[in-house]
Amino acid sequence: MRATGPSVVIIGAGIIGASAAYALQKAGARVTIVDAGGETATASSFGWINASFHHDAAHFRLREEGLAAWKRLGSKLDLPVSWRGTLCWEETGEALTAQHDQLCALGYAVREIDQAEFTSLEPHIAEPPVRALHFAAEASVDSIVATNALLDAAASLGAQRLRGLKVEEIMETKGRFAGIRTQAGITLADHVLIAAGTGTAALMTQAGVPMSMLRRPALVLRTRPVPPVLRHVLVSQFGELRQLGDGTLLMPAAVDHQGDSSETVTDSLEDTADQVLIRLRSLLPHLTLDWQELTLAFRPVPQDELPVIGAVAKGLHVACMHSGITLGALAGELVAQEMLEGVTNQSGALLAAYRPSRFAK
């Protein structure tokens, strides 16, 4: 049975839109998801859920709460999340010590391990590091499967979906946003959520609240399936790496994928794939590795590199961020809460630094 609460149009069907759709529909809203189709950043995400990467203490707290939100979501839905943790040796020497001490000071679950323990945890890695950090609370997720599971769960509760339609206008009536117009006509709603990833900036400009975004292309390589060899997410001097359930290995082309600030892809695709394979073979020399897929995606990164979540104007909200995977479950929770109940002490504290109003300054 269709819910009887406020009507909400969600623009975007990536992890943020899907999470918000589920949370809103579950809370009693009448949700319509508008999906223009095509590839999304979610579809090519590395899928690492973490708080070890952060910009400052407030961003750390937000990401840490993001991990907790995935736990809460996992208690309600069967999602492909693996809570096996991360092994990190991206830094060495004093830099690794500083990383450890900073995370300890923030209260994070971090532990330094030696070479022997590393080998016991990941026996297939060649030349294991003398020192590494173990982030036991971190996870990874199959972003495509998780997004589809959330969309299906929202649909089972009564959410509806418009596919293949591009939003041409966000409708404003008497000082309040009240729906959208696509090539198929007008869809009215009490609330509109922009969760359109890299398409967010254009929609925000259209709504009269410009929001600049950075150009952040990313290439991610997927190998042909190999036998199970990895248990954790690995963050090394050679790059980030994890193994999916089907046996494929996933590695971003940029060595520092989380902090990569490149605006263009300069190398040929074949050269890029060869370079990634060289790094992979240095970690796993006993495997016969070949690449199967190289995917280019543009990450949705606001101008100041921080998340954007909250009310834009009456009837209009926005949720745009990198990493949407780490913050996906939390973003859905908070958007639903604030849209239907208003700002709470918790949401206000968590999101104070991430409101869209900062771009109007």
Q: Averaging pLDDT over every residue, what do you get?
A: 93
Give the count of structural domains.
Answer: 3
How helix-rich are the residues, as a percent range? 25-40%
CATH A-level architecture of the largest domain:
3-Layer(bba) Sandwich
How far apart are the termini? 44 Å
CATH topology assignment of the largest domain: FAD/NAD(P)-binding domain
**Shape category:** globular
Q: How many β-strands, per DSSP?
A: 22
Describe this structure in words.
This protein is an alpha+beta fold and 361 residues long. The chain has helices at residues 15-26, 57-74, 93-105, 115-121, 143-156, 200-206, 269-283, 324-341, 345-351; strands at residues 7-11, 30-35, 48-49, 81-82, 86-88, 110-114, 131-135, 139-141, 160-163, 167-173, 176-182, 185-188, 191-194, 213-214, 217-223, 233-236, 239-243, 249-252, 291-298, 301-302, 308-313, 316-320. Strands 6-7-5-16-17-18-15-19 form an 8-stranded mixed sheet, sandwiched between helices. It has a 6-stranded mixed sheet with strand order 9-2-1-13-22-21, sandwiched between helices. Helix 1 (15-26) runs parallel beside helix 5, helix 1 packs parallel to helix 8 and helix 2 packs across helix 8 (324-341). The radius of gyration is 21 Å and the shape is globular. The termini are far apart.
